[in-house]
Amino acid sequence: MIQTIRSAWKVQELRNKLLFTVFALLIFRVGSAIPVPLIDTNTLSTWMNQQSSSIFGLLNVMSGDAFAQATVFALSIQPYINSSIIIQLLTIAIPALERMAKEEGEEGKKKIAAITRYATVAIALLQSFGYYTLIKANNLVVAEGIWPAFVIIFAFTAGSAFLMWLGEQITEFGVGNGISIILFGGIIARGPSMVTSMINGVRVWATGSTSTTTASLHPAFIPLILVGILLLVVLVVFITNSERRIPVQYAKRVVGRKMYGGQSSHIPVKVNMSGVMPIIFAQAIASIPATIGMFVPSAQTEGSGWNTFLKVFDSNGLIYCVVYFLLIVVFSYFYNTIQFNPVEISNNLKKNGGFIPGFRPGKPTADFLSKVIGRLTMFGALYLAVVALLPAITGNIMLAFGSTAGRSLAIGGTSIIIVVGVALETVKVLEAQLMMRHYKGFLE
Fold this sequence. Notes:
Helix content: 55-70%
Distance between the termini: 23 Å
Order of helices and strands: HHHHHHHHHHHEEEEHHHHHEHHH
Oligomer: single chain
Number of strands: 5
Shape: globular
């Protein structure tokens, strides 16, 4: 990776792309430090840190702590991601959108992109209003009236819309997928605060303090955590690059005096086609009880029904982990079903004179592809579930030895998958650009 970046830096055009990407990330981080006016950000940050088991903990990680500090980019790129997912699902469900995407070519893609942008603004407005309602219910707005509400809601919405535009600029003038790069930057930005938390945790353990704001951490767990993160990165890299190659043979055709076809190829099928999306969906669904409990006053009363219910669905509890595990498996199958259509691929192979050796074209080929996808999806779902639950398991083990800092690792697996995936994707883009500019090495 480092060698690829060095080689890219020597090419003027690629150096400009890298500099533009870095500059865009700097703008993102500056905006993530500018608080929205009329909000008690100090109290909000303390309160948000106590809600790490809810959906707000995931949103805070994706935004690089901007969500907990109510900055201009507090919503980060989440509205655009949600909008893209919704439009993608609607494209399959609504025939008009499906025809627009498949039959109108580049013009259809532009229309779908425009619809996605409008949907992003609408979702950002809805989330901004919900965020304002949340902080107002907890008396964190320092002014009353319609004008403060207007300023806060539209500041959040404008920040999210600007990030959407910035991501598109990175895609066009920078390297890789701009939305993924921004998500990557937000997660990486939490690195220094995580290191600081670990240092403070060791100090709390050493002094024997019973601090309610800082979790204790035994020094012996630090090397174990670092080694565990490295091994997890290796696993994520291995699975991300793994694929099943289904062989395809094309029949020979005689056109005039020339013979075409007869070559062999393959269909590459990723072991983990769905990426991190099943984890994000499962995290959002599994966090609903804790999120609802934040709006119910009786949930904070010891012994009440809501309080007992929330303890059962604690993010490090057994029931939560089982539900989380099952949701990841379900969403993995659901997402892969949307992405990979065996019947459509089988029909395309048949039209182009291709076939899978040992299987007749048509239904037998579609059944074989469905069987292969089912097996790969199960393996990919188990992999995602293990990576997502490993931090929670580690946290419980650390808690058994008196270190409460393990609770902060609840969504570390998701972050690692996103960071590693974006890094690998960016390196592949740079390598492809370098390959286009070094024909000599390619031909040799």
